[in-house]
């Protein structure tokens, strides 16, 4: 038994990855945006959300420590025209006065290699929380002193709008909504 403990301790001391700490990032709100697109009335409609806040934690030695939490204020939503913007913020869809934020919280981030990740998590819209999977790529910038000072995360997923109780105009508007996420985050050095 003593030999097994000695081997385990030696392995932990000699493995440099076992000591790697999580890298913490704060989302750069001015540099981050969420895009929505869907088919409606025979064409493609778009909307954009800004004002995104949140944090990212990445641990190269233990992917179970990786996490992303993002809060998106619905009031920042801007669609292709004023009427659509009003409708999307109203009780017909997002109901911004009653539910001011959309929240994504990851449950697991799995590295796929070559800067690609699969992010599992839950998306809370209005009073509904559903599991989602994001296909993501990450770019690292300003690598100094073995710390990544800035990262860019690009992710995409599709959801069913009716799953979040946004099922108005089903004869004219497709149920599938594509979400494209462009996050810029800066090292925060504080857990």
From TrEMBL:
SMART domains: YceI (SM00867). Residues 1-20 form the signal peptide. Residues 24-186 form the Lipid/polyisoprenoid-binding YceI-like domain. Keywords: Signal. This is YceI.
